[in-house]
Amino acid sequence: MIDVFLDQPQNKISFYLTEELIMKKLFLVIVVLLLTANLWANGGSQKSPQPVAPVQNKANLTPLGKYSPAVEITFVQGINLAGNQQNKIDDNDMLKFLEEKLGIKVKHKWVTSPEQYNQRLALSLASNDLPDCMKVDMKTLGQMIDADQIEDLTQVWNAYGSELTKRLMDVPGSTGFGMGKRNGKLYGIPDVTPVLETMHMLFLREDWRKKLNLPEPTTFENLEKILYAFTRNDPDGNGIQDTYGIGMNKSLYGIAYEMTSIANAMHAYPNAWIRNSQGRIVYGSIQPEMKPVLVKLTQWFKDGLIDPEFTVKDENKEAELVLREKMGATFGVQWTQFISGGIVDLYITNPQSDWRIWSIPSIDAKPAKPIVYDNTRNFYVVRKGYPNPEALVLLLNMMHQIGAGDGRTYFKTPDEFNAVWNNNWELCPARTESIHGNIPKWENVFTALDTNNPTLVGYNYNASILYNNILEQRRWLASMSNPRRDGQQVDKERFKGIWGNLFSGQLFSAASELAAKNGLEYEQCGALVTNTMVESLATIKKLELETFTRIITGDAPIGEFDNFVNSWNRLGGQRITEEINQWYANNK
């Protein structure tokens, strides 16, 4: 988060030092004056500081190379350690591995729980007792830039970031690296959360669709036919009209059972900051495109397609309707099937059930563009003056190379890989979610399965393990006359995993394909939090939820949408919009 305020009357965003940092700077000035006075008092006879000798151990350093001799780097971490790991934070197989393979000796100034991390870090910042590398939020990043406490990492990232690391971390359309910059200079390398993995798709009860002789949900019109039939045509065969077409949760948004994807199908983007056709960042929930979405949902609710109790249910409660076979569709992210075990557990309780995933259909000839989010909120920074800032980048390179690249760069055998990676990867102090390489891993596994060519996954032990597990699962299924019913008797968890894994892989592959075709909409606010957001965001979000819910349930007319837009702007939304756009203008 960056503290910003709106100057009057120039209407510009300015960055400012907190009172704490101002006092710190004044203290440093006083210290410098006292030292200078002491020098004069001693006739200026004290020797000047000697220049630091150039570092010789990185003259031939490469992105996947090794320091010689080894260098030391200190970190702080917020991490939950179990059992004897607590006593091994500075003495474990991962850190020994880093020293052996990279020539990097990792030490910790301190380690605490994730809940206490920010408080402990604030104390370190206040006392200027900084580690060489640390993870900070956007507000702290901005303050440290202002105080000249951290290194400009532009050159080391460009020079030492491996091609694979750059490809997986800096995804086109994502906001993480932009948020880590000031005036074009990279000060914070984002602690990346994979953007494409946030894409939503349609999860649909396929056996119901086929039983009722319904079309595939490739168009919005077909989807509506399916949802009405799931509600009115007794898909569960119990002779009672007690099923719902589609799920929705009380927050309206979220990871599953949500309205976001329905809006995306109609080219609207609620609960998201997007770039409009003029290049301006706008809030999707107040755009004119939202009005027909609310009209459609109001009709669906009135006609019984939506669970009438959704206003008091979260995703977990809505998923229970799936398990009870009272709901036939939902939109959600790749792990939707695991929410309350709704979809995967149903394969056990009803061996004939069959769920499939489909792309979000469009309401017209223009393809629907699903929204994806950059949930990156933290950044790795290097303290000013640390002589080996590229060590951070080498650590990230190593983690991505092992997780998503050719693991043989560092390991000779799968056993060696498993010993370090599976048990200790969280002990590496520089790691991002992108190190797992889920999308390239699944793409290669699917290709290897389709072509029966395991050499395609042999380069990466993560992919190889997944490939071998799926082969084993297929052999296991082929050995049974009725896999679903036998699966209930043999191994419930194993059986669930087969479909759960494949759903994730299929969604990852679809997201990758859409990204390559410019078929995704990227949320643009990212980690940015402005002053007015702090003051007003909770209020206007509550207003949005209450207004949209009342409209959908019929407790308010659709005309209430216009009143909501006016109130949203007046209560701080317009000011937030200006702040976000000014931030982008100042940080091109």
Structural write-up:
This protein is mainly alpha-helical and 588 residues long. The chain folds into 3 domains: 71-193 and 375-435, Periplasmic binding protein-like II (D-Maltodextrin-Binding Protein, domain 2), CATH 3.40.190.10; 200-366, Periplasmic binding protein-like II (D-Maltodextrin-Binding Protein, domain 2), CATH 3.40.190.10; 438-521, no CATH class. Helix content is 45%, strand content 11%. It is built from 21 helices and 16 strands. It has helices spanning 19-41, 93-102, 117-126, 138-146, 154-160, 163-169, 176-179, 206-211, 220-232, 260-265, 290-302, 315-323, 342-349, 390-404, 414-424, 438-451, 461-478, 483-490, 492-516, 531-552, 560-586; strands at 4-6, 13-15, 71-78, 104-112, 133-137, 181-182, 185-186, 189-190, 201-205, 273-275, 281-283, 329-332, 355-358, 371-372, 378-382, 521-522. The strands form 7 sheets. A 3-stranded antiparallel sheet has the order 5-15-8. Strands 12-9-13 form a 3-stranded antiparallel sheet. A two-stranded antiparallel ribbon has the order 1-2. Helix 2 links the parallel strand 3 (71-78) and strand 4 (104-112). Helix 12 runs parallel beside helix 13 (342-349), helix 16 (438-451) crosses helix 17 and helix 16 (438-451) packs across helix 19 (492-516). The longest helix has 27 residues, at 560-586. The radius of gyration is 27 Å and the shape is globular. It starts with a strand and ends with a helix.
